[in-house]
Design goal:
mainly beta; globular; about 220 residues; 1 helix; disordered N terminus; single chain; twelve-stranded antiparallel β-barrel; about 15% helix; Porin
Amino acid sequence: MRYLFGLVVAVFFCVSVQAQNSSISANEDSASQSPRNWAFSVVADGYFVPHSSFFVSPVVTADRKRLHLEARYNYEDQQTGSLWIGYNFNVGRNLVLEATPMIGAVVGKTAGIAPGYAVSLTYKRLSLSSSGEFVFDARHRSESFFYSWPQLAYSVTDWMRLGLAAQRTKAYQTELDIQRGVFIGLSYKKVEFTGYVFNFGWTEPTVVLEAAFSF
């Protein structure tokens, strides 16, 4: 696993350096080049789980055309990090499908390799999305698991979303194997704040507060 993790890190670093050099060369050749080649995002989720310690799960992404790079912590499990590489594609105009198949290396409290995905289907103000992965545990095969976070969102305005969400995760445990709940999201320019309440009405609720910034 150390070699696999090192390989993913090396790919991540080399692609980033190559992209930066290409961007510099392009800017020197012509000032009229297309907009920025890279798009970045930083997302942090704070988890308030009943009878458990508070923890934060940060995710950083970098996208350039078809290439998708991603780093996560406390996502597959607490005290666990992962690095990902994937391929972006989208189809459609009115009904838009966006998908990113990925492969990742997971190290820490949980270690292994994970094929994963992010997919969304959008029509006007309605959006159905899901992210997931299957973690093949390198230490204990019986500990391999499937993670998923589907959600259905409706944009009430350009700056507010309402919706339903579910989550199956190993990062924390409650009386329910599948977490289910509602959320509200507020956005301003490139910043977005989302609040989730899971399991309300079934057991003690879990609250997730998310802050996202894109640039």
